[in-house]
Amino acid sequence: MSEIFEPNREFSRKARIKNMCExxxxxxxxxxxxxxxxxxxxxxxxxxxxxYDKVLDESEAPFYKWFVGGKLNVTHQCIGRHLKERKNKAxxxxxxxxxxxxxxxYLLLYYRVNRMANLLKNQFGIKKGDxxxxxxxxxxxxxFAMLACAKIGAIHSVVFGxxxxxxxxxxxxxxxxKLVITADGAYRRGTPYLLKPTVDTALEEGCDCCxxxxxxxxxxxxxDMVAGxxxxxxxxxxxxxxxxDPEPMDSEDPLFLLYTSGSTGKPKGVxxxxxxxILWAQYTxxxxxxxxxxxxxxxxxxxxxxxxxxxxxxxxxxxxxTTIMYEGVPLYPNAGRWWDMIEQLRVNQFYTxxxxxxxxxxxxxxxxxxxxxxxxxxxxxxxxxxxxxAWMWYYNEIGGGRCPIVDTWWQTExxxxxxxxxxxxxxxxxxxxxxxxxxIKAEIIDEDGNPTPVGEKxxxxxxxxxxxxxxxxxxxxxxFVKSYFGDCKKDGKPVYFSGDGAxxxxxxxxxxxxxxxxxxxxxxxxxxxAEVEAVIAHxxxxxxxxxxGKPDDIKGESLFxxxxxxxxxxxxxxxxxxxxxxxxxxxxxxKVDSILLVPGLPKTRSGKIMRRLLRTIAKxxxxxxxxxxxxxxxxxxxxEQLYKxx
Length: 646
Prior knowledge:
This protein is an alpha/beta fold and about 650 residues long. The chain is built from 20 helices and 32 strands. Strand 24 (about 490) and strand 25 (about 495) form a beta hairpin. The protein is globular and about 70 Å long.
């Protein structure tokens, strides 16, 4: 689709960036004085306890340091500074699947966070620099816990509640967490489920670092509680003071760790700093969503992902806006649930994933027409490119043909949006992320660092450091350098490589073409193929396995497994065994949707599996790449024939 959608004129008149001339002027300011641009933003946006001495220290690149010497606390940025003017304003509106609703004002949030911060200090001895793992459902206490850690300088690591005990254990051990905060359970699709037993299993072996578990009673289920280890939040929190002074944090002190899949089997603990992260979270809320003081913002992500960190908790609260948390799924009790909530809560900005849009388009295309969605101003998408049909339905049926859609490109490692339309300024092309935000030097280059021609795929790189960038991989700085600064150079200097491919069109618009490494994007969630392959390799009967992504109408991509067997086995029996093991070791999100039994895998003479060829076959496309370097080129023909006959 090449049609361009111009910004809504009425919206543009009130937007922070009103047209492309203003956008370009900001970009000129960045080019003219890069550090000066960030210096101005940092002084305008952050309430510093102590001013910084230096904007950017590049002396140990790529371990960049921003706002060196500055002191702040992120919870003061998100809560404390709002109390004079917004204490009675809703900070968080939480809705459970059963319709239960809790409204937490900024003053109440202040008290709740302080009490939990005191509980962490007094009951569990948590102090600055300690790691705390959160294995939580979508309840307000998850946000309280994140902010309480930030208040006292502890480093939180939120683990998605759908991960298995083994995946949780790996993250606890890697972070050397002293405490796990969890809940007895929550509700999903109208049915209660339990989380605490997963924590119990995770702590059975190898987690000597973690000696305490704090349990929030959400469902009030009957669960096992280990004496001396497990404590009930609901009982202990009553005894804590609602006053707690924020810990002064250095601008570069870690705020949180968030584990993401990589191209090796071990998940990476992405480490984000305090000042740079919160600055960019607030900035992107202001400019990408054009959030104003009285707006109600809803991001449908889970707090276990970076989207939930930045655009449910930290970004909206730093803005002083109202943020919505929803516990359940979009189809319960029917496909109109989200649209009903938008009508009732008068949501102004709505941010979700293409997977959800495609699903709701498929099963409830006519549902939006039953609700009043006129409160909406901006729509957003995140996690993966959106296809034109879903984009048009979203634009016309949800946005009424008047709301701009900001199709945002960014990553766990970037902390916030990097490439996105500006809703009041950017003419939008469906399927294109459009242009880098002011301050972000995103470029598409080849392996030699040269700009790629129009229409040719290249490597999407960020060629200058930015404040919210990943600081390191927890406990593994060498892997950090190799993973992000080992593949691309610009003017002879290593630059951040995103792992994504992209291309420019004639007007300079950027379209993301997908991963170039061994990572699959399933429903917006990055799954490292090596991590999944490592699990499958231990399934009885499997000799070799290669995982690739296959296009999927709902998920965007699904996991496709090419398997070489030791002994004969029925494919459906094997797939069941594989998925049973995957659910146990990783979680349901990593289930394999398709398998193909093959006589061998395409390998180079050095033994490297050529997954790009397998990806091509899984897409149903013809092989046009050179296969002469393969140890056995005939294997490609055999696999193609099996795929076509499957």
